[in-house]
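Design request, tokens follow.
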């Protein structure tokens, strides 16, 4: 579009702002307020978070993003009116981003087998433990960490995709519906690729089988999986792994032996809350794709049974079940047993599925279910259970204690193996992968809740598992304000016994606004050091005896290398990434009343 055409379009748009705002307010009240103005614990952003977003981001979400299923009956003009109302902004005129690298990459700046953090868990066991040679950072250097650069995502209120570091390059997705390739040491931009939807999952890196290309693999919030040339950003293949309108990929696909194992989740838990919605028909799944071409090998559903009509709600809408049991996190590979392990979420409707809130083991080659171990039975839940209109909330709803993180496969000193995982219930579980998931021990570290217990990820080094506790709570005054006195705590548990051997007390917020001591973000680990980010906006590093080594307040303004206005905020979702002597963290999470933000921060150890 020419500059003249853009200006003309903006002139037309600006000619009737009051009308657009008025229409948008009415549409929002009729179709959006139930969830976005509802209880603070609902899994959708509140009004404050929406106001921090750009017009273009909200419009894209309504048109082709995670809210497209809910907005399918709205016209283009109505979607624009809603976007204008909730953000108070107009469309942006796009410009070439600043911060381009002076010399574009003709190859990798570093060896591909050098320092790297590849995918969600740094390995296919999802340990989130970075060995010393890959970390390039010791416990004695951690107190000397200093900010090196910041990179900002335009128009975002959350920074929710962790970076992958390989060969001196950094790959990361954003809410701007792009994947960005940066120089890992300077943050300058090498290339960007526009996509159908935002990418919140980690990216995996590997040679493309049968070719001379090196590729990155990832999924987006419209359930598309991709392979892209890592050096150029050219699309190699794209495969839609699930046709359900509410389907999305939030967990990182895991790559193993030329096969990409893709976890499938959904946003039907929110869409199903509308009384007019036929709740619910989505089933979670794992999809195995050929990494070379994206062709499907198998799809294994977390609920074997197809949803069927179960009755009608109080307003006469047909209901379906069983449903739900999404997979929010990255699959874990067990090459020894030829299995892939996944952790599942709650059911969405009755009857509750026997595979909800469970660890499931599927055969790598075929997708056959090998065993299941359920942690919380009868957990049927949708966002309506926290809303004013509870029409579609299941009778006798469950506690919403699903698993939001990946199982960790670890080998103990005596050679025995263990699957360890923490749950939103506040309980840490250890299973025997060599005995059909038999429970070895269970230890409570938190009170649990819909946003409680352990959320996004734990870390383990073969001796211990380190678990962060969320237990976010809100003031009981009808507002969406965080309770600054509730939540938090970091724990180290002996993997063999489940005994708590290290505990860090919650760090109080004081008078800090929009603050909680909750630790919801994933934990990361290097020898002798545990990194944990908090909803307060602080990133902290602790010695494995619980001593504080370093902290940094990310909830402030930054000067970004790409020239985009940058602000840090709450830290939630992904955990820190450590590679080659640098520490990278996302900052900004405008949901759950946390401080919105849009940055990726990179730290390097200096000398005092």
């Amino acid at each position: 579009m020419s500059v003249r055409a853009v200006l003309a379009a903006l002139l037309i748009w600006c000619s009737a702002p009051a009308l657009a705002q008025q229409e948008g307010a009415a549409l929002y009240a009729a179709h959006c307020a139930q969830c976005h103005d509802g209880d603070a614990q609902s899994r959708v952003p509140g009004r404050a978070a929406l106001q921090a977003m750009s017009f273009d981001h909200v419009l894209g979400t309504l048109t082709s993003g995670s809210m497209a299923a809910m907005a399918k009956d709205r016209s283009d003009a109505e979607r624009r009116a809603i976007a204008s109302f909730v953000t108070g902004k107009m469309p942006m005129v796009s410009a070439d981003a600043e911060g381009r690298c002076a010399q574009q990459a003709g190859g990798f700046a570093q060896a591909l087998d050098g320092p790297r953090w590849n995918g969600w868990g740094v390995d296919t066991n999802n340990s989130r433990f970075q060995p010393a040679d890959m970390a390039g950072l010791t416990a004695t250097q951690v107190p000397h960490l200093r900010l090196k650069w910041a990179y900002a995502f335009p128009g975002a209120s959350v920074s929710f995709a962790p970076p992958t570091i390989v060969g001196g390059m950094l790959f990361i997705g954003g809410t701007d519906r792009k994947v960005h390739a940066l120089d890992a040491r300077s943050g300058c931009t090498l290339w960007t690729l526009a996509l159908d939807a935002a990418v919140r999952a980690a990216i995996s890196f590997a040679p493309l089988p049968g070719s001379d290309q090196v590729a990155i693999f990832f999924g987006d919030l419209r359930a598309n999986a991709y392979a892209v040339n890592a050096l150029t950003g050219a699309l190699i293949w794209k495969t839609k792994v699930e046709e359900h309108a509410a389907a999305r990929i939030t967990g990182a696909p895991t790559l193993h032996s030329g096969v990409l194992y893709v976890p499938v989740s959904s946003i039907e838990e929110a869409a199903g809350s509308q009384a007019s919605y036929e709740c619910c028909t989505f089933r979670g799944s794992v999809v195995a794709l050929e990494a070379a071409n994206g062709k499907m090998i198998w799809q294994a559903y977390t609920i074997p049974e197809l949803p069927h009509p179960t009755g009608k709600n109080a307003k006469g809408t047909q209901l379906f079940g069983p449903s739900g049991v999404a997979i929010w996190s990255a699959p874990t590979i067990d090459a020894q047993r030829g299995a892939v392990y996944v952790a599942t979420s709650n059911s969405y409707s009755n009857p509750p599925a026997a595979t909800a809130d469970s660890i499931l083991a599927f055969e790598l080659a075929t997708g056959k279910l090998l065993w299941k171990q359920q942690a919380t039975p009868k957990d049927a839940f949708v966002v309506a259970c926290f809303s004013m209109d509870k029409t579609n909330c299941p009778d006798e709803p469950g506690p919403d204690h699903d698993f939001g993180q990946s199982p960790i496969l670890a080998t103990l000193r005596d050679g025995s193996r263990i699957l360890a995982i923490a749950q939103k219930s506040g309980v840490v579980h250890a299973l025997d992968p060599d005995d059909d998931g038999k429970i070895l021990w269970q230890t409570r570290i938190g009170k649990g809740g819909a946003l409680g217990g352990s959320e996004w990820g734990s870390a383990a080094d073969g001796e211990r598992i380190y678990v962060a506790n969320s237990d976010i709570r809100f003031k009981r005054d009808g507002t969406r304000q965080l309770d600054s006195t509730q939540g938090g705590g970091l724990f180290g548990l002996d993997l063999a016994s489940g005994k708590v051997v290290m505990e860090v007390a919650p760090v109080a917020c004081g008078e800090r606004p929009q603050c909680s001591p909750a630790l919801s973000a994933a934990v990361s680990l290097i020898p002798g050091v545990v990194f944990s980010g908090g909803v307060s906006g602080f990133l902290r590093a602790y010695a494995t005896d619980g001593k504080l080594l370093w902290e940094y307040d990310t909830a402030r303004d930054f000067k970004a290398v790409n020239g985009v206005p940058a602000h840090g905020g709450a830290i939630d979702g992904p955990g820190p990434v450590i590679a080659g002597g640098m520490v990278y963290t996302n900052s900004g999470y405008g949901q759950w009343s946390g401080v919105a933000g849009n940055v990726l921060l990179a730290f390097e150890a200096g000398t005092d």
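Comment from the thread starter after seeing the answer: thanks! The domain at 121-162+459-608 is CATH 2.40.128.630 (Lipocalin).
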